[in-house]
Design goal:
Largest interface: A-B, 30 and 31 residues
Oligomer: homotrimer
Number of helices of chain A: 8
Number of strands of chain A: 0
Number of domains of chain A: 1
Helix content of chain A: over 70%
Structural class of chain A: mainly alpha
Chain lengths: 201, 201, 201
Protein backbone atom coordinates (compact mmCIF):
# COMPACT_ATOMS: atom_id res chain seq x y z
CA UNK A 1 0.00 0.00 0.00
CA UNK A 2 2.62 2.52 1.15
CA UNK A 3 4.96 1.04 -1.43
CA UNK A 4 2.35 1.54 -4.20
CA UNK A 5 1.81 5.16 -3.12
CA UNK A 6 5.54 5.99 -3.25
CA UNK A 7 5.87 4.17 -6.55
CA UNK A 8 3.17 6.37 -8.07
CA UNK A 9 4.74 9.53 -6.61
CA UNK A 10 8.09 8.48 -8.07
CA UNK A 11 6.53 7.83 -11.47
CA UNK A 12 4.85 11.24 -11.40
CA UNK A 13 8.07 13.00 -10.39
CA UNK A 14 10.09 11.32 -13.13
CA UNK A 15 7.34 11.99 -15.71
CA UNK A 16 7.27 15.69 -14.80
CA UNK A 17 11.06 15.93 -15.07
CA UNK A 18 10.63 14.51 -18.59
CA UNK A 19 7.95 17.08 -19.42
CA UNK A 20 10.18 19.93 -18.27
CA UNK A 21 13.11 18.86 -20.45
CA UNK A 22 10.87 18.11 -23.47
CA UNK A 23 9.16 21.51 -23.26
CA UNK A 24 12.50 23.25 -23.08
CA UNK A 25 13.28 21.53 -26.42
CA UNK A 26 9.87 22.71 -27.67
CA UNK A 27 8.74 19.23 -28.70
CA UNK A 28 5.12 18.73 -29.74
CA UNK A 29 2.47 17.16 -27.49
CA UNK A 30 3.36 13.64 -28.53
CA UNK A 31 7.04 14.29 -28.06
CA UNK A 32 6.42 15.58 -24.55
CA UNK A 33 4.33 12.50 -23.79
CA UNK A 34 6.90 10.04 -25.02
CA UNK A 35 9.80 11.75 -23.21
CA UNK A 36 7.77 11.74 -19.99
CA UNK A 37 6.98 8.08 -20.52
CA UNK A 38 10.55 7.09 -21.22
CA UNK A 39 11.89 9.07 -18.26
CA UNK A 40 9.41 7.43 -15.90
CA UNK A 41 9.69 3.81 -17.06
CA UNK A 42 13.12 3.65 -18.72
CA UNK A 43 15.08 2.47 -15.70
CA UNK A 44 12.68 -0.28 -14.70
CA UNK A 45 12.37 -1.40 -18.31
CA UNK A 46 16.11 -1.79 -18.83
CA UNK A 47 16.37 -3.64 -15.51
CA UNK A 48 13.59 -6.06 -16.49
CA UNK A 49 15.14 -6.61 -19.95
CA UNK A 50 18.62 -7.32 -18.53
CA UNK A 51 17.23 -9.82 -16.02
CA UNK A 52 14.84 -11.35 -18.55
CA UNK A 53 11.83 -10.38 -16.47
CA UNK A 54 9.39 -10.00 -19.38
CA UNK A 55 6.84 -8.73 -20.29
CA UNK A 56 8.39 -5.69 -18.65
CA UNK A 57 6.64 -4.11 -15.68
CA UNK A 58 4.59 -1.39 -17.43
CA UNK A 59 3.25 -3.92 -19.93
CA UNK A 60 2.01 -6.10 -17.09
CA UNK A 61 0.35 -3.24 -15.22
CA UNK A 62 -1.48 -0.44 -17.04
CA UNK A 63 -1.44 1.81 -13.94
CA UNK A 64 1.95 3.23 -14.94
CA UNK A 65 0.75 4.29 -18.40
CA UNK A 66 -2.42 5.89 -17.04
CA UNK A 67 -0.48 7.76 -14.36
CA UNK A 68 1.98 9.10 -16.89
CA UNK A 69 -0.68 10.24 -19.38
CA UNK A 70 -2.61 11.97 -16.57
CA UNK A 71 0.59 13.63 -15.32
CA UNK A 72 1.47 14.94 -18.77
CA UNK A 73 -2.02 16.35 -19.37
CA UNK A 74 -1.86 18.06 -15.98
CA UNK A 75 1.68 19.32 -16.55
CA UNK A 76 0.84 20.81 -19.96
CA UNK A 77 -2.30 22.51 -18.64
CA UNK A 78 -0.42 24.03 -15.71
CA UNK A 79 2.89 24.48 -17.47
CA UNK A 80 3.38 28.01 -16.21
CA UNK A 81 2.96 27.02 -12.58
CA UNK A 82 5.30 24.02 -12.78
CA UNK A 83 8.23 26.16 -11.75
CA UNK A 84 6.65 26.79 -8.33
CA UNK A 85 6.58 23.02 -7.88
CA UNK A 86 10.27 22.53 -8.46
CA UNK A 87 11.05 22.06 -4.78
CA UNK A 88 8.32 19.45 -4.24
CA UNK A 89 9.38 17.79 -7.48
CA UNK A 90 12.91 17.51 -6.27
CA UNK A 91 11.63 15.79 -3.13
CA UNK A 92 9.49 13.32 -5.08
CA UNK A 93 12.41 12.64 -7.35
CA UNK A 94 14.68 12.00 -4.39
CA UNK A 95 12.18 9.66 -2.80
CA UNK A 96 11.79 8.01 -6.21
CA UNK A 97 15.47 7.29 -6.76
CA UNK A 98 15.81 6.00 -3.19
CA UNK A 99 12.98 3.57 -3.65
CA UNK A 100 13.82 2.57 -7.22
CA UNK A 101 17.40 1.81 -6.24
CA UNK A 102 16.36 -0.67 -3.59
CA UNK A 103 13.61 -2.16 -5.78
CA UNK A 104 16.28 -2.82 -8.40
CA UNK A 105 18.56 -4.44 -5.82
CA UNK A 106 15.69 -6.66 -4.67
CA UNK A 107 14.84 -7.78 -8.21
CA UNK A 108 18.46 -8.70 -8.75
CA UNK A 109 18.52 -10.78 -5.57
CA UNK A 110 15.27 -12.51 -6.62
CA UNK A 111 16.99 -13.44 -9.89
CA UNK A 112 19.86 -14.96 -7.89
CA UNK A 113 22.48 -12.37 -8.87
CA UNK A 114 25.62 -11.39 -6.93
CA UNK A 115 25.60 -8.28 -4.65
CA UNK A 116 27.93 -6.30 -6.91
CA UNK A 117 25.70 -6.60 -9.96
CA UNK A 118 22.62 -6.03 -7.79
CA UNK A 119 24.09 -2.64 -6.86
CA UNK A 120 24.52 -1.89 -10.56
CA UNK A 121 20.94 -3.00 -11.29
CA UNK A 122 19.60 -0.71 -8.56
CA UNK A 123 21.55 2.23 -9.91
CA UNK A 124 20.34 1.49 -13.45
CA UNK A 125 16.74 1.32 -12.25
CA UNK A 126 17.01 4.71 -10.59
CA UNK A 127 19.01 6.59 -13.19
CA UNK A 128 18.51 5.14 -16.65
CA UNK A 129 15.19 6.89 -17.30
CA UNK A 130 16.97 10.24 -17.06
CA UNK A 131 19.76 9.00 -19.32
CA UNK A 132 17.26 7.96 -22.01
CA UNK A 133 15.45 11.31 -21.64
CA UNK A 134 18.67 13.16 -22.35
CA UNK A 135 19.70 10.92 -25.27
CA UNK A 136 16.30 11.37 -26.93
CA UNK A 137 16.61 15.13 -26.46
CA UNK A 138 20.06 14.99 -28.04
CA UNK A 139 22.00 15.99 -24.93
CA UNK A 140 24.92 14.30 -23.21
CA UNK A 141 23.16 12.73 -20.21
CA UNK A 142 23.26 15.17 -17.30
CA UNK A 143 24.29 12.48 -14.82
CA UNK A 144 27.53 12.00 -16.76
CA UNK A 145 28.41 15.62 -16.39
CA UNK A 146 27.64 17.42 -13.22
CA UNK A 147 24.89 16.17 -10.97
CA UNK A 148 25.78 13.81 -8.15
CA UNK A 149 23.03 11.39 -9.06
CA UNK A 150 24.29 7.85 -9.44
CA UNK A 151 26.73 7.98 -6.55
CA UNK A 152 23.98 8.12 -3.87
CA UNK A 153 22.33 5.10 -5.54
CA UNK A 154 25.56 3.11 -5.49
CA UNK A 155 26.31 4.02 -1.87
CA UNK A 156 22.75 3.35 -0.72
CA UNK A 157 22.61 -0.04 -2.42
CA UNK A 158 26.03 -0.94 -1.01
CA UNK A 159 24.97 0.09 2.49
CA UNK A 160 22.01 -2.28 2.26
CA UNK A 161 24.38 -5.20 1.70
CA UNK A 162 26.61 -3.97 4.49
CA UNK A 163 23.69 -3.60 6.93
CA UNK A 164 22.34 -7.02 5.99
CA UNK A 165 25.49 -8.50 7.57
CA UNK A 166 24.35 -7.29 10.97
CA UNK A 167 21.65 -8.94 13.08
CA UNK A 168 18.90 -6.52 12.10
CA UNK A 169 15.63 -7.36 10.32
CA UNK A 170 15.99 -7.36 6.55
CA UNK A 171 13.31 -4.76 5.92
CA UNK A 172 15.04 -2.38 8.32
CA UNK A 173 18.23 -2.75 6.25
CA UNK A 174 16.09 -2.16 3.17
CA UNK A 175 14.54 1.00 4.59
CA UNK A 176 17.92 2.28 5.76
CA UNK A 177 19.31 1.71 2.26
CA UNK A 178 16.57 3.97 0.89
CA UNK A 179 17.34 6.59 3.56
CA UNK A 180 21.05 6.53 2.66
CA UNK A 181 20.31 7.14 -1.04
CA UNK A 182 17.99 10.04 -0.20
CA UNK A 183 20.28 11.48 2.47
CA UNK A 184 23.38 11.58 0.29
CA UNK A 185 21.41 13.01 -2.62
CA UNK A 186 19.94 15.77 -0.44
CA UNK A 187 23.30 16.62 1.14
CA UNK A 188 25.02 16.63 -2.25
CA UNK A 189 22.50 19.09 -3.67
CA UNK A 190 22.37 21.25 -0.52
CA UNK A 191 26.13 21.57 -0.24
CA UNK A 192 26.77 21.40 -4.00
CA UNK A 193 29.07 18.42 -3.56
CA UNK A 194 30.51 17.23 -6.85
CA UNK A 195 32.62 14.30 -7.88
CA UNK A 196 36.35 15.08 -7.84
CA UNK A 197 37.61 16.84 -10.93
CA UNK A 198 39.95 14.52 -12.82
CA UNK A 199 41.02 17.17 -15.30
CA UNK A 200 43.72 19.50 -14.06
CA UNK A 201 44.84 22.44 -16.10
CA UNK B 1 0.53 -14.63 -48.38
CA UNK B 2 -0.93 -11.13 -48.70
CA UNK B 3 0.33 -10.42 -45.19
CA UNK B 4 3.86 -11.53 -46.19
CA UNK B 5 3.77 -9.32 -49.27
CA UNK B 6 2.78 -6.21 -47.33
CA UNK B 7 5.33 -7.02 -44.65
CA UNK B 8 8.10 -7.08 -47.25
CA UNK B 9 6.85 -3.83 -48.82
CA UNK B 10 6.82 -2.21 -45.38
CA UNK B 11 10.35 -3.44 -44.66
CA UNK B 12 11.54 -2.06 -48.00
CA UNK B 13 9.87 1.29 -47.42
CA UNK B 14 11.34 1.66 -43.94
CA UNK B 15 14.79 0.56 -45.17
CA UNK B 16 14.74 3.14 -47.98
CA UNK B 17 13.72 5.89 -45.54
CA UNK B 18 16.79 4.88 -43.53
CA UNK B 19 19.01 5.04 -46.63
CA UNK B 20 17.76 8.53 -47.47
CA UNK B 21 18.53 9.91 -43.99
CA UNK B 22 21.92 8.14 -43.81
CA UNK B 23 23.01 9.46 -47.22
CA UNK B 24 22.04 12.98 -46.22
CA UNK B 25 24.48 12.54 -43.31
CA UNK B 26 27.05 11.23 -45.83
CA UNK B 27 27.68 8.01 -43.90
CA UNK B 28 29.77 5.30 -45.55
CA UNK B 29 28.32 2.15 -47.16
CA UNK B 30 28.25 0.28 -43.88
CA UNK B 31 26.68 3.18 -42.05
CA UNK B 32 23.94 3.38 -44.68
CA UNK B 33 23.33 -0.35 -44.34
CA UNK B 34 23.09 -0.30 -40.56
CA UNK B 35 20.78 2.71 -40.49
CA UNK B 36 18.52 1.04 -43.08
CA UNK B 37 18.54 -2.13 -41.00
CA UNK B 38 17.75 -0.37 -37.74
CA UNK B 39 14.96 1.70 -39.30
CA UNK B 40 13.34 -1.40 -40.78
CA UNK B 41 13.56 -3.76 -37.82
CA UNK B 42 13.87 -1.41 -34.81
CA UNK B 43 10.19 -1.24 -33.95
CA UNK B 44 9.54 -4.97 -34.13
CA UNK B 45 12.73 -5.67 -32.21
CA UNK B 46 11.84 -3.40 -29.29
CA UNK B 47 8.33 -4.90 -29.23
CA UNK B 48 9.72 -8.45 -29.10
CA UNK B 49 12.22 -7.50 -26.38
CA UNK B 50 9.58 -5.83 -24.20
CA UNK B 51 7.24 -8.82 -24.47
CA UNK B 52 10.09 -11.32 -24.05
CA UNK B 53 9.40 -12.85 -27.46
CA UNK B 54 13.00 -13.91 -28.17
CA UNK B 55 14.97 -14.61 -30.29
CA UNK B 56 13.55 -11.47 -31.92
CA UNK B 57 11.75 -11.76 -35.26
CA UNK B 58 14.62 -10.97 -37.67
CA UNK B 59 16.87 -13.51 -35.91
CA UNK B 60 14.26 -16.22 -36.44
CA UNK B 61 13.69 -15.40 -40.11
CA UNK B 62 16.56 -14.38 -42.42
CA UNK B 63 14.16 -12.98 -45.05
CA UNK B 64 14.20 -9.59 -43.35
CA UNK B 65 17.99 -9.29 -43.47
CA UNK B 66 18.17 -10.37 -47.11
CA UNK B 67 15.40 -7.95 -48.10
CA UNK B 68 17.14 -5.07 -46.36
CA UNK B 69 20.57 -5.78 -47.87
CA UNK B 70 19.03 -6.07 -51.36
CA UNK B 71 17.11 -2.83 -50.80
CA UNK B 72 20.23 -0.95 -49.73
CA UNK B 73 22.26 -2.21 -52.70
CA UNK B 74 19.45 -1.16 -55.04
CA UNK B 75 19.00 2.19 -53.30
CA UNK B 76 22.71 3.06 -53.49
CA UNK B 77 22.95 2.08 -57.17
CA UNK B 78 19.92 4.18 -58.06
CA UNK B 79 20.49 6.89 -55.48
CA UNK B 80 19.89 9.72 -57.94
CA UNK B 81 16.50 8.37 -58.99
CA UNK B 82 15.28 7.75 -55.45
CA UNK B 83 13.77 11.20 -55.29
CA UNK B 84 11.30 10.30 -58.06
CA UNK B 85 10.15 7.45 -55.87
CA UNK B 86 9.33 9.63 -52.89
CA UNK B 87 5.58 9.47 -53.50
CA UNK B 88 5.49 5.68 -53.81
CA UNK B 89 7.74 5.44 -50.79
CA UNK B 90 5.37 7.51 -48.74
CA UNK B 91 2.57 5.12 -49.72
CA UNK B 92 4.62 2.03 -48.76
CA UNK B 93 5.54 3.70 -45.52
CA UNK B 94 1.91 4.49 -44.77
CA UNK B 95 0.85 0.91 -45.52
CA UNK B 96 3.75 -0.22 -43.36
CA UNK B 97 2.84 1.77 -40.28
CA UNK B 98 -0.80 0.72 -40.62
CA UNK B 99 0.11 -2.94 -40.73
CA UNK B 100 2.88 -2.78 -38.13
CA UNK B 101 0.60 -1.01 -35.67
CA UNK B 102 -1.99 -3.77 -35.79
CA UNK B 103 0.65 -6.53 -35.77
CA UNK B 104 2.02 -4.98 -32.58
CA UNK B 105 -1.45 -4.88 -31.04
CA UNK B 106 -2.00 -8.54 -31.93
CA UNK B 107 1.33 -9.63 -30.41
CA UNK B 108 0.39 -7.81 -27.21
CA UNK B 109 -2.98 -9.59 -27.07
CA UNK B 110 -1.26 -12.93 -27.67
CA UNK B 111 0.97 -12.17 -24.67
CA UNK B 112 -2.17 -11.54 -22.59
CA UNK B 113 -1.65 -7.79 -22.16
CA UNK B 114 -4.28 -5.12 -21.47
CA UNK B 115 -5.74 -3.06 -24.38
CA UNK B 116 -4.07 0.17 -23.27
CA UNK B 117 -0.57 -1.29 -23.33
CA UNK B 118 -1.38 -3.13 -26.59
CA UNK B 119 -2.06 0.27 -28.16
CA UNK B 120 1.35 1.43 -26.92
CA UNK B 121 3.02 -1.73 -28.28
CA UNK B 122 1.44 -1.19 -31.70
CA UNK B 123 2.60 2.40 -31.79
CA UNK B 124 6.12 1.38 -30.73
CA UNK B 125 6.23 -1.29 -33.44
CA UNK B 126 5.30 1.23 -36.13
CA UNK B 127 7.35 4.18 -35.00
CA UNK B 128 10.42 3.11 -33.04
CA UNK B 129 12.52 2.22 -36.10
CA UNK B 130 12.35 5.85 -37.19
CA UNK B 131 13.22 7.01 -33.67
CA UNK B 132 16.34 4.83 -33.61
CA UNK B 133 17.29 6.03 -37.10
CA UNK B 134 17.20 9.63 -35.91
CA UNK B 135 19.07 8.94 -32.66
CA UNK B 136 21.87 7.13 -34.53
CA UNK B 137 22.09 10.07 -36.94
CA UNK B 138 22.33 12.43 -33.97
CA UNK B 139 19.00 14.19 -34.55
CA UNK B 140 16.09 14.75 -32.21
CA UNK B 141 13.62 12.13 -33.51
CA UNK B 142 11.42 13.74 -36.17
CA UNK B 143 8.23 12.23 -34.70
CA UNK B 144 8.81 14.22 -31.51
CA UNK B 145 8.95 17.46 -33.41
CA UNK B 146 6.64 17.98 -36.32
CA UNK B 147 5.28 15.01 -38.20
CA UNK B 148 1.91 13.62 -37.20
CA UNK B 149 3.21 10.08 -37.07
CA UNK B 150 2.40 8.33 -33.82
CA UNK B 151 -1.07 9.83 -33.44
CA UNK B 152 -2.54 7.84 -36.37
CA UNK B 153 -1.08 4.67 -34.85
CA UNK B 154 -2.63 5.37 -31.47
CA UNK B 155 -6.03 6.22 -32.96
CA UNK B 156 -6.00 3.23 -35.33
CA UNK B 157 -5.08 0.81 -32.57
CA UNK B 158 -7.72 2.33 -30.29
CA UNK B 159 -10.36 2.06 -33.03
CA UNK B 160 -9.62 -1.65 -33.32
CA UNK B 161 -10.51 -2.16 -29.66
CA UNK B 162 -13.58 0.02 -30.09
CA UNK B 163 -14.74 -1.89 -33.19
CA UNK B 164 -14.10 -5.24 -31.48
CA UNK B 165 -16.93 -4.30 -29.05
CA UNK B 166 -19.43 -4.50 -31.90
CA UNK B 167 -20.77 -7.74 -33.41
CA UNK B 168 -18.43 -7.73 -36.41
CA UNK B 169 -15.84 -10.38 -37.33
CA UNK B 170 -12.51 -9.80 -35.63
CA UNK B 171 -10.48 -9.65 -38.82
CA UNK B 172 -12.80 -6.94 -40.17
CA UNK B 173 -12.06 -4.88 -37.04
CA UNK B 174 -8.39 -5.62 -37.62
CA UNK B 175 -8.51 -4.46 -41.25
CA UNK B 176 -10.49 -1.36 -40.31
CA UNK B 177 -7.87 -0.54 -37.68
CA UNK B 178 -5.21 -0.60 -40.40
CA UNK B 179 -7.38 1.60 -42.63
CA UNK B 180 -7.85 4.13 -39.79
CA UNK B 181 -4.08 4.41 -39.26
CA UNK B 182 -3.44 4.90 -42.98
CA UNK B 183 -6.39 7.26 -43.46
CA UNK B 184 -5.45 9.62 -40.62
CA UNK B 185 -1.81 9.59 -41.71
CA UNK B 186 -2.74 10.44 -45.33
CA UNK B 187 -5.15 13.19 -44.28
CA UNK B 188 -2.64 14.65 -41.83
CA UNK B 189 0.04 14.90 -44.52
CA UNK B 190 -2.35 16.12 -47.24
CA UNK B 191 -3.85 18.87 -45.09
CA UNK B 192 -0.66 19.50 -43.09
CA UNK B 193 -2.47 18.82 -39.84
CA UNK B 194 -0.21 19.22 -36.83
CA UNK B 195 -0.59 18.55 -33.16
CA UNK B 196 -1.77 21.62 -31.24
CA UNK B 197 0.98 24.04 -30.31
CA UNK B 198 1.45 24.05 -26.55
CA UNK B 199 3.89 26.95 -26.56
CA UNK B 200 2.30 30.37 -26.74
CA UNK B 201 4.43 33.44 -27.02
CA UNK C 1 41.81 -20.53 -19.74
CA UNK C 2 43.31 -18.90 -22.84
CA UNK C 3 39.78 -17.87 -23.81
CA UNK C 4 39.24 -16.25 -20.39
CA UNK C 5 42.54 -14.39 -20.65
CA UNK C 6 41.71 -12.93 -24.08
CA UNK C 7 38.21 -12.10 -22.92
CA UNK C 8 39.62 -10.04 -20.03
CA UNK C 9 42.14 -8.34 -22.34
CA UNK C 10 39.32 -7.48 -24.76
CA UNK C 11 37.19 -6.10 -21.93
CA UNK C 12 40.09 -3.96 -20.73
CA UNK C 13 40.82 -2.66 -24.22
CA UNK C 14 37.19 -1.74 -24.85
CA UNK C 15 36.92 -0.14 -21.40
CA UNK C 16 40.00 2.01 -22.01
CA UNK C 17 38.68 3.12 -25.40
CA UNK C 18 35.57 4.24 -23.51
CA UNK C 19 37.67 6.13 -20.96
CA UNK C 20 39.57 7.95 -23.70
CA UNK C 21 36.40 9.15 -25.44
CA UNK C 22 34.71 10.09 -22.15
CA UNK C 23 37.71 12.11 -20.96
CA UNK C 24 37.83 13.97 -24.25
CA UNK C 25 34.24 15.01 -23.50
CA UNK C 26 35.39 16.00 -19.99
CA UNK C 27 32.77 13.86 -18.24
CA UNK C 28 33.00 13.42 -14.47
CA UNK C 29 34.33 10.26 -12.78
CA UNK C 30 30.99 8.54 -12.88
CA UNK C 31 30.45 9.47 -16.52
CA UNK C 32 33.84 8.02 -17.40
CA UNK C 33 32.99 4.84 -15.52
CA UNK C 34 29.63 4.35 -17.18
CA UNK C 35 30.98 5.04 -20.67
CA UNK C 36 33.78 2.53 -20.07
CA UNK C 37 31.25 0.02 -18.83
CA UNK C 38 28.87 0.46 -21.74
CA UNK C 39 31.69 0.27 -24.30
CA UNK C 40 33.00 -2.96 -22.79
CA UNK C 41 29.72 -4.82 -22.28
CA UNK C 42 27.34 -3.15 -24.77
CA UNK C 43 27.85 -5.58 -27.63
CA UNK C 44 27.49 -8.74 -25.59
CA UNK C 45 24.49 -7.30 -23.78
CA UNK C 46 22.58 -6.48 -26.97
CA UNK C 47 23.43 -9.95 -28.33
CA UNK C 48 22.13 -11.64 -25.19
CA UNK C 49 18.96 -9.52 -25.20
CA UNK C 50 18.21 -10.26 -28.87
CA UNK C 51 18.65 -14.01 -28.37
CA UNK C 52 16.79 -13.99 -25.05
CA UNK C 53 19.85 -15.23 -23.20
CA UNK C 54 19.03 -13.56 -19.85
CA UNK C 55 20.17 -12.54 -17.27
CA UNK C 56 22.77 -11.06 -19.62
CA UNK C 57 26.38 -12.17 -19.31
CA UNK C 58 27.77 -9.45 -17.00
CA UNK C 59 24.88 -9.96 -14.56
CA UNK C 60 25.72 -13.66 -14.33
CA UNK C 61 29.43 -13.09 -13.81
CA UNK C 62 30.76 -10.22 -11.67
CA UNK C 63 34.28 -10.54 -13.11
CA UNK C 64 33.40 -8.18 -15.95
CA UNK C 65 32.26 -5.41 -13.60
CA UNK C 66 35.30 -5.74 -11.37
CA UNK C 67 37.66 -5.72 -14.37
CA UNK C 68 36.04 -2.59 -15.75
CA UNK C 69 36.10 -0.69 -12.45
CA UNK C 70 39.77 -1.60 -11.93
CA UNK C 71 40.58 -0.55 -15.49
CA UNK C 72 38.89 2.81 -15.06
CA UNK C 73 40.66 3.52 -11.77
CA UNK C 74 43.97 2.64 -13.38
CA UNK C 75 43.21 4.66 -16.51
CA UNK C 76 42.27 7.78 -14.57
CA UNK C 77 45.37 7.54 -12.35
CA UNK C 78 47.65 7.15 -15.36
CA UNK C 79 45.63 9.30 -17.74
CA UNK C 80 48.67 11.21 -18.97
CA UNK C 81 50.53 8.05 -19.93
CA UNK C 82 47.59 6.44 -21.72
CA UNK C 83 48.67 7.95 -25.00
CA UNK C 84 51.89 5.90 -24.96
CA UNK C 85 49.70 2.82 -24.74
CA UNK C 86 47.72 3.57 -27.88
CA UNK C 87 49.55 1.02 -29.97
CA UNK C 88 49.11 -1.81 -27.46
CA UNK C 89 45.51 -0.75 -27.00
CA UNK C 90 44.88 -1.00 -30.69
CA UNK C 91 46.23 -4.55 -30.60
CA UNK C 92 44.04 -5.55 -27.64
CA UNK C 93 41.08 -4.00 -29.37
CA UNK C 94 41.81 -5.92 -32.55
CA UNK C 95 42.14 -9.20 -30.67
CA UNK C 96 38.93 -8.28 -28.85
CA UNK C 97 36.81 -7.70 -31.94
CA UNK C 98 38.16 -10.88 -33.52
CA UNK C 99 37.24 -12.95 -30.53
CA UNK C 100 33.93 -11.22 -29.80
CA UNK C 101 32.81 -11.69 -33.40
CA UNK C 102 33.26 -15.45 -33.26
CA UNK C 103 31.78 -15.69 -29.76
CA UNK C 104 28.69 -13.94 -31.12
CA UNK C 105 28.50 -16.35 -34.06
CA UNK C 106 28.77 -19.31 -31.70
CA UNK C 107 26.01 -18.01 -29.40
CA UNK C 108 23.77 -17.63 -32.44
CA UNK C 109 24.44 -21.20 -33.56
CA UNK C 110 23.73 -22.44 -30.03
CA UNK C 111 20.36 -20.68 -30.22
CA UNK C 112 19.66 -22.50 -33.50
CA UNK C 113 19.83 -19.44 -35.74
CA UNK C 114 20.67 -19.32 -39.47
CA UNK C 115 24.24 -18.49 -40.61
CA UNK C 116 23.27 -15.10 -42.06
CA UNK C 117 21.85 -13.82 -38.79
CA UNK C 118 24.74 -15.42 -36.86
CA UNK C 119 27.10 -13.22 -38.89
CA UNK C 120 25.01 -10.20 -37.89
CA UNK C 121 25.06 -11.27 -34.23
CA UNK C 122 28.83 -11.62 -34.29
CA UNK C 123 29.23 -8.18 -35.80
CA UNK C 124 26.84 -6.69 -33.25
CA UNK C 125 28.76 -8.31 -30.38
CA UNK C 126 32.04 -6.83 -31.58
CA UNK C 127 30.88 -3.37 -32.59
CA UNK C 128 27.82 -2.31 -30.64
CA UNK C 129 29.73 -1.26 -27.52
CA UNK C 130 31.50 1.40 -29.54
CA UNK C 131 28.21 2.51 -31.09
CA UNK C 132 26.64 2.98 -27.65
CA UNK C 133 29.75 4.83 -26.44
CA UNK C 134 29.40 7.32 -29.28
CA UNK C 135 25.64 7.75 -28.88
CA UNK C 136 26.03 8.46 -25.16
CA UNK C 137 28.75 11.00 -25.98
CA UNK C 138 26.42 12.63 -28.51
CA UNK C 139 28.48 11.72 -31.59
CA UNK C 140 27.44 9.97 -34.80
CA UNK C 141 28.98 6.52 -34.21
CA UNK C 142 32.48 6.46 -35.67
CA UNK C 143 31.95 3.08 -37.32
CA UNK C 144 29.23 4.61 -39.51
CA UNK C 145 31.58 7.24 -40.80
CA UNK C 146 35.14 6.38 -41.49
CA UNK C 147 36.73 3.45 -39.75
CA UNK C 148 36.70 0.06 -41.44
CA UNK C 149 35.42 -1.67 -38.34
CA UNK C 150 32.36 -3.79 -39.00
CA UNK C 151 33.50 -5.07 -42.40
CA UNK C 152 36.31 -7.24 -40.91
CA UNK C 153 33.77 -8.72 -38.50
CA UNK C 154 31.34 -9.57 -41.28
CA UNK C 155 34.07 -11.09 -43.48
CA UNK C 156 35.63 -13.04 -40.62
CA UNK C 157 32.29 -14.47 -39.51
CA UNK C 158 31.42 -15.36 -43.12
CA UNK C 159 34.79 -17.06 -43.62
CA UNK C 160 34.06 -19.25 -40.59
CA UNK C 161 30.92 -20.58 -42.27
CA UNK C 162 32.81 -21.01 -45.54
CA UNK C 163 35.67 -22.88 -43.84
CA UNK C 164 33.22 -25.07 -41.94
CA UNK C 165 32.18 -26.51 -45.32
CA UNK C 166 35.63 -28.06 -45.73
CA UNK C 167 36.84 -31.19 -43.93
CA UNK C 168 38.78 -29.32 -41.24
CA UNK C 169 38.18 -29.46 -37.46
CA UNK C 170 35.57 -26.97 -36.31
CA UNK C 171 37.81 -25.18 -33.84
CA UNK C 172 40.39 -24.61 -36.57
CA UNK C 173 37.67 -22.93 -38.67
CA UNK C 174 36.79 -20.93 -35.53
CA UNK C 175 40.39 -19.82 -34.96
CA UNK C 176 40.84 -18.96 -38.63
CA UNK C 177 37.68 -16.85 -38.49
CA UNK C 178 39.25 -14.85 -35.64
CA UNK C 179 42.46 -14.48 -37.63
CA UNK C 180 40.54 -13.20 -40.67
CA UNK C 181 38.81 -10.52 -38.59
CA UNK C 182 42.11 -9.39 -37.04
CA UNK C 183 44.02 -9.60 -40.33
CA UNK C 184 41.57 -7.49 -42.32
CA UNK C 185 41.31 -4.97 -39.51
CA UNK C 186 45.11 -4.62 -39.26
CA UNK C 187 45.54 -4.33 -43.04
CA UNK C 188 42.72 -1.80 -43.28
CA UNK C 189 44.32 0.42 -40.66
CA UNK C 190 47.88 -0.03 -41.96
CA UNK C 191 46.99 0.79 -45.56
CA UNK C 192 44.18 3.19 -44.66
CA UNK C 193 41.68 1.17 -46.67
CA UNK C 194 38.23 2.72 -46.63
CA UNK C 195 34.84 1.65 -47.87
CA UNK C 196 34.09 2.91 -51.38
CA UNK C 197 32.78 6.47 -51.50
CA UNK C 198 29.18 6.44 -52.67
CA UNK C 199 28.97 10.22 -52.92
CA UNK C 200 30.38 11.68 -56.10
CA UNK C 201 30.57 15.39 -56.61
Amino acid sequence: MFYGFIDILGTIAFAISGVLVAMEKRLDVFGVLIIAFVTAIGGGTLRDLLIGNTPVVWLRDGTYSITIVATVVFAILFAKRLKYLRKSLFLFDTVGIGLYTLVGVEKGLEAGLQPLVCILLGTITASFGGVLRDILCNEIPVIFRKELYATPCILGAASYFLLAQFPIPENVAYALGIVVVMGIRLLAVKFKIQLPNIYRG
